[in-house]
């Protein structure tokens, strides 16, 4: 009878505790919301189970019962630990509305109606998505659009200034040297050709030297003292029938050859001492200075919106050759450098037009990378173009989707040419475009590009 009383008292106590827990769970949604109520329900269930086990009579000496009780306790503990934490509540001082009062017990006959909370709903937390790794293709296109594309305003202004200076220089030469048959000056260079335009800061000014083919002939470079097929000499012919003075260019002869050095020196003196650049610059709203110390014929132009470097090149066109008055450094004079620039640009654009290729984009990126890298700047320009032309003969897929593949392939080809120390010209295989590079320079370039084959992003980093 006493045992029955104890069990009845326990049931009444358990019933009272259960009523309190049920009442708390019934009103939890109003206080804590759906998520909070679910969390509280799981935790309350686990606690209730623990209390039930603590107050229930144990089966003494029953190891299975004890093991079962222990396992259920671990499960309940794991249940509590695994319960997701409710979202952090807003602090009291941050709320514009008073906190809801604790829920009151429901009276008999009352129903639980949902209440509308006037406080603004909490802003859901947005989990930040992980950063997406860009492919080499995307990095190349991004590099091209962000760093290599020339702003149209700058390009237009640079070309306008260059054309105006070209006109002024043309008028001066005609007035100063009317006996010399210079052709019409024209612009050239990266900004016009689109293969290596990085910024609107450099333009070439080509000055044609018109020769009488009956009085002049070309001597191949391999037949000269330098034994270099990249250079030519221009020889005065038939002096016994047409003595010196018959050609207006005879004043620039050294021996029997038209001297590129003497012609450059004469033009340099004119640029520095004879032309009123302050007046021309004032007329064009800019400041123009000839570069005195340079062996090149160079002008520096400063405008409010752009700074421009203009290089003047005397050029001779004979026998389908384009020769520049750009002799190599050293004691050798009279040499003229064969230029393939016009043929390079024409061929690349012809190939791109034939297969909608991305050779020009690839070259622009490669030239930008090499010009900005101290170890690779001597590779920019003509050498890269010839590598791309060689590669185009064996790789036909130059679509824009294959830009990354072709970029890496050009790097591999360059490493191969540097290992041999020879890059043959696409238009004349006798010419080695690496002939003027030092061995240390070749080693440094090869090492840098060899690393870049496996990690091309090295070349796209800011220098």
Notable features of this structure?
mitochondrion, Beta Polymerase, domain 2, two-stranded antiparallel sheet, nine-stranded mixed beta sheet, MID49 protein, single chain, Poly(a)-polymerase, middle domain, membrane, alpha+beta, 12 helices, 12% strand
> What string gives the helices and strands in order?
HHHHEHEEEEEHHEEEEEHHHHH
Main sheet attributes: strand count, strand direction, barrel closure? 9 strands, mixed
Q: Say what the CATH topology of the domain at 152-211 and 264-338 is.
A: Beta Polymerase, domain 2
CATH class of the domain at 152-211 and 264-338: Alpha Beta
Helix content: 40-55%
- Please state the overall shape, judged from the principal axes of the Cα atoms: globular
Low-confidence stretches: 1-8, 66-117
Beta-strand fraction estimate: 5-15%
Helix/strand-derived class?
Answer: alpha+beta
Distance between the termini: 94 Å
| Radius of gyration of CA atoms, rounded to a whole number | 42 Å
Please count the beta strands (DSSP E, at least 2 residues each). Answer: 11
CATH architecture type of the domain at 152-211 and 264-338: 2-Layer Sandwich
**Secondary structure tally, helices:** 12
Q: Give the overall average pLDDT.
A: 78
């Amino acid at each position: 009878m006493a045992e029955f009383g104890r069990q009845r008292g326990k049931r009444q106590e358990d019933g009272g505790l259960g009523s309190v827990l049920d009442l708390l769970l019934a009103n939890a949604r109003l206080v804590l919301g759906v998520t909070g109520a679910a969390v509280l329900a799981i935790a309350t269930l686990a606690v209730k189970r623990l209390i039930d086990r603590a107050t229930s009579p144990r089966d003494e000496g029953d190891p299975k019962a004890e093991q079962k009780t222990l396992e259920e306790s671990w499960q309940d503990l794991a249940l509590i630990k695994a319960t997701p934490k409710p979202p952090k509540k807003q602090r009291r001082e941050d709320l514009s509305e008073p906190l809801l009062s604790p829920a009151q017990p429901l009276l008999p006959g009352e129903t639980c109606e949902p209440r509308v909370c006037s406080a603004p709903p909490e802003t859901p937390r947005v989990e930040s998505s992980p950063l997406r790794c860009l492919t080499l293709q995307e990095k190349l296109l991004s590099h091209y659009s962000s760093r290599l594309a020339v702003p149209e305003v700058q390009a237009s202004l640079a070309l306008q200034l260059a054309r105006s200076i070209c006109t002024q220089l043309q008028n001066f030469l005609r007035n100063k040297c009317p006996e010399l048959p210079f052709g019409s000056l024209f612009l050239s260079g990266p900004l016009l050709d689109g293969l290596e335009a990085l910024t609107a800061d450099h333009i070439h000014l080509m000055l044609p030297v018109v020769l009488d083919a009956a009085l002049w002939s070309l001597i191949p470079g391999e037949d000269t003292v330098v034994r270099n097929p990249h250079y030519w000499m221009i020889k005065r012919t038939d002096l016994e029938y047409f003595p010196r003075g018959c050609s207006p260019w005879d004043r620039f002869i050294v021996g029997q050859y038209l001297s590129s050095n003497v012609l450059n020196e004469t033009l340099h003196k004119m640029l520095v001492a004879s032309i009123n650049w302050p007046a021309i610059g004032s007329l064009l709203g800019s400041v123009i200075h000839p570069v005195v110390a340079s062996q090149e014929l160079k002008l520096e132009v400063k405008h409010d919106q752009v700074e421009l470097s203009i290089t003047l090149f005397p050029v001779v066109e004979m026998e389908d050759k384009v020769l520049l008055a750009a002799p190599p450094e050293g004691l050798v004079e009279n040499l003229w450098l064969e230029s393939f620039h016009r043929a390079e640009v024409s061929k690349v654009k012809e190939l791109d037009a034939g297969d909608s290729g991305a050779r020009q984009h690839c070259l622009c990126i490669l030239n930008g990378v090499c010009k900005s890298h101290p170890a690779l700047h001597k590779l920019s320009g003509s050498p890269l173009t010839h590598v791309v032309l060689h590669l185009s003969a064996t790789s036909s897929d130059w679509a824009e989707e294959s830009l990354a593949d072709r970029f890496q392939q050009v790097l591999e080809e360059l490493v191969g040419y540097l290992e041999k120390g020879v890059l043959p010209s696409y238009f004349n295989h006798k010419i080695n475009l690496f002939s003027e590079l030092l061995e240390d320079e070749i080693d440094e370039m090869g090492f840098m590009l060899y690393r870049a084959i496996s990690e091309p992003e090295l070349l796209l980093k800011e220098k």
